[in-house]
């Protein structure tokens, strides 16, 4: 059994355990603030975080700003992206009293853990990471030191707070694996401080972008949470479909139509085939109208809450989250220094 199959096999048991013993878990998860969060993020991960928070799991969400510069030249609109993500989180139901929302760059003690952790992995292991390889291939730039080592930095994200549960998509499984390795090796060398965290693999299938490719802000195929209803309608109207009147669900041959059906299906909690039958021979125009209505209705409560938030709410959430993350990181770093004989 490969490690992905093993992880997948463990999920039902893990989910049951979280449900009955939420107090045993500490969740650490997050994302790179490379753009605005979209519908795919919401149904894929954000909703799940809110659910974990609400059943009583202590939750940490990192906006991994240093991870933005792994595969691009500039940090871009990082401040705006962080700000927008916090608005999305709050609107989606993350409660800063129960969930710590913070950024890499504000927690120096977390970043310091990167140093001893780097000593626990070999260059060959770093080069073997399949996600790093894929990102390198996609970035069309030479491999820089941070891209090569960011999975180790991500281990620091997880272990600084002794997170033992890491909700991630499949593409992040190699990083959870390396985190486990680092926790174990640190324990062997210096004494047990860190848990070996488990991945909680997102159940929701990945929602495609409106063109059937991966949903991404940079492809212009995403419906962001921050969009207005009109912007959403325009984005969907511009989606490429085909001239066939009869609507059917065929992701391989009709990716544009299938993407609209998938999008509507997620929002309506119905199957794409069922929606295809409902639209029948009324063509893409009718499908687009139905999808627009479905998306806007689904996101309406979130968008209304979002509109009611103030920029100062974001600043306050980040200030408190960063402060809390920092005090936890400082405590962990003290333990690490003590274990390594570096308390002076
Ligand atoms: N690599 C993750 C992504 O791009 C984001 C991330 C950074 C993360 N640090 C993390 C996810 C720690 C889980 C835990 O999706």
Element pattern in H and E: HEHEHHEHHHHEHEHHHHH
- Low-confidence parts lasting 5 or more residues at pLDDT below 50? none
Number of domains: 2
Count the beta strands.
Answer: 5
Query: Could you describe the largest sheet, including whether it forms a barrel?
Result: 3 strands, parallel
By secondary-structure content and strand pairing, the structural class works out as mainly alpha
Instruction: Please state the average pLDDT score.
Output: 95
Q: Your description of this structure?
A:
The chain is mostly helical and 344 residues long. The chain has 14 helices and 5 strands. A 3-stranded parallel β-sheet has the order 1-2-3. It has a two-stranded parallel sheet with strand order 4-5. The longest helix has 29 residues. The chain starts with a helix and ends in a 5-residue tail after the last helix. The mean pLDDT is 95. The site of tryptophan has 14 residues, from β1, α8 and β4.
Topology:
Elements: H1 3-20, E1 26-31, H2 39-54, E2 58-63, H3 65-68, H4 78-92, E3 99-103, H5 108-118, H6 123-128, H7 130-139, H8 145-159, E4 165-168, H9 173-190, E5 198-201, H10 229-237, H11 255-268, H12 272-279, H13 283-307, H14 311-339
Parallel strand pairs: 1-2, 2-3, 4-5
Helix pairs in contact: 4-13, 5-8, 5-14, 8-9, 10-13, 11-12, 11-13
The protein binds tryptophan (TRP).
């Amino acid at each position: 059994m490969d490690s992905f199959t093993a992880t997948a096999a463990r999920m039902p048991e893990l989910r049951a355990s979280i449900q009955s013993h939420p107090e045993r878990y500490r969740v650490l998860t997050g994302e790179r603030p490379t753009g605005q969060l979209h519908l795919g993020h919401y149904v894929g991960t954000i909703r799940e975080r809110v659910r974990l928070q609400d059943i009583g799991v202590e939750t940490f969400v990192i906006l991994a700003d240093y991870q933005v510069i792994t595969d691009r030249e500039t940090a871009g609109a990082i401040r705006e992206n962080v700000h927008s993500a916090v608005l999305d989180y709050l609107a989606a139901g993350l409660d800063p009293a129960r969930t710590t929302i913070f950024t890499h760059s504000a927690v120096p003690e977390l970043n310091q853990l990167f140093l001893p952790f780097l000593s626990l992995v070999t260059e060959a292991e770093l080069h073997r990471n399949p996600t790093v390889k894929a990102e390198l291939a996609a970035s069309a730039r030479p491999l820089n030191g941070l891209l090569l080592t960011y999975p180790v930095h991500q281990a620091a994200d997880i272990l600084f707070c002794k997170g033992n549960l890491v909700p991630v998509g499949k593409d992040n499984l190699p990083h959870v694996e390396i985190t486990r390795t680092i926790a174990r090796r640190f324990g062997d060398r210096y004494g047990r401080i860190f848990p070996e965290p488990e991945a909680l693999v997102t159940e929701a299938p990945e929602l495609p972008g409106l063109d059937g490719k991966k949903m991404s802000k940079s492809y212009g195929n995403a419906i962001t949470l921050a969009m207005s209803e009109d912007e959403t309608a325009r984005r969907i109207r511009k989606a490429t479909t085909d001239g066939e009147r009869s609507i059917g669900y065929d992701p391989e041959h009709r990716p544009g139509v299938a993407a609209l059906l998938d999008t509507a299906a997620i929002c309506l909690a119905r199957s794409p085939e069922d929606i295809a039958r409902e639209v029948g021979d009324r063509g893409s125009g009718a499908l687009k109208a139905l999808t627009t209505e479905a998306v806007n209705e689904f996101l309406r409560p979130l968008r209304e809450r979002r509109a009611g938030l103030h920029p100062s709410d974001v600043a306050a959430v980040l200030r408190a989250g960063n402060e809390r993350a920092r005090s936890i990181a400082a405590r962990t770093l003290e333990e690490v220094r003590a274990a390594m004989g570096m308390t002076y």
